Amino acid sequence: MSELFEAYQEHKALFWSVILIGIPAFLFIGSLLFPEVIWDSFLWRYIWGPVVADSRGEAVNGITSGYNIVNTAVYAITLLVALLGILEIFKKYNINMDRTLILSLIPWVILGGTLRSLEDAYFFTQSISPFFISPVIYFTLGVSSIFVLVLDVSLFPLEKQPLYVKVILMIPPVLTSLYLSPTYRLIIFVIVICTLVLMYLYCAYKKHPYPLLTCYGTSVLLFTFFFITNHLITMEGTRSMEIFVIMLLTSVSTITILFISKLMSSRYSSMKAFLVALNPLIIFSHMLDASATYRGISAYGYTEKHVLPALAIDIIGTPLVMYPLKIAVVFLVVFSLDIWFREEMDEMPDVKNLIILVIIILGIAPGIRNMLRISMGV
């Protein structure tokens, strides 16, 4: 492992040149010169085709929506490379991946689920809807949040910037919301402006290190909540009570795990790890995903698209298997970070917290999306 790390450090420029320029150029030129091999047989069949099919709710040219072994592997590799890139950006701009930053990113995490559920409800036009399909939406939000974060640390403290700079910085979320909501422009304008002003005043008062990140994420998130609420109130066939049912299942399962951990910690000190730092949030996020998946499949006939959970459900015969699967994931993550590799992780706090954030995203984002989709009856 150390040799691999040393090789990366020695050839870092070459590595990122290949990742950011070489591979995209190869795929683009290959798609032009050998479309049947690169585009038809690979990119369209395994990567972009399932996304387009998902956005249209039907097979497109024989390609169906959902995850397969190929795109799952591609997404996993892309995620690992993206994490490495994020760490490089943090190092360059002296950003610490601490608890404050993670909590500031939570609105962006939830935003991925709410935007994805609006796409399920056909809120976006067909031309842009593929960009709101997972995992594309999470890539888009990831790049956007990192850009805003870099802007934050470059301008910090924001309160010392001239007024015109502050005004200009508040324009992007307003324009975005107005573009996506022509029917309710006045209402959305008021919601976004009020949210931006209030959040900025709060961040200035608290001397929050990431005011733009917090303001942007929260304002656009409230914008999506408005349309979700409007859909639940005005459309037929909605199931608003499912939000309470799923949240109840999530809360009960989370509290149960924490309670058992508390009882066992008196005999096994390692169980205390489940009760500290952001680990309860990890538990909650994955119990939310398990609860939403269970309700969707058992009560409304939804299907699981991810390869391994779908296989487990087929073998066991019930979506209840999601709970032990998720508990196993949580157990593995907590024990790996806080017990088995604790000394190594203590030496790399940014890496540890970034892994924690990714684990939270993998639970809460699809959990929010599935819960809202079920509730909106789509």
Output the structural class.
mainly alpha
Mean pLDDT: 85
Largest sheet: none
First-residue to last-residue Cα separation: 47 Å
Element-level helix/strand string: HHHHHHHHHHHHHHHH
Number of extended strands: 0
Helical fraction: over 70%
Assess the beta-strand content as a share of residues.
Answer: under 5%
- Work out the count of structural domains: 3
| Count of DSSP H/I helices | 16
Outline of this structure?
The chain is mainly α and 378 residues long.
Task: Based on the model shown, name its key terms.
mainly alpha; 378 residues; 77% helix; 16 helices; 3 domains
Tell me about this structure.
The protein has 378 residues and is mainly alpha-helical. It folds into 3 domains: 1-96, no CATH class; 97-235, no CATH class; 241-376, no CATH class. 77% of the residues lie in helices and 0% in strands. It is built from 16 helices and no strands. Helix 5 (99-120) runs antiparallel to helix 6 (136-155) and helix 5 (99-120) packs parallel to helix 16. The chain is globular. The protein starts with a helix and ends with a helix.
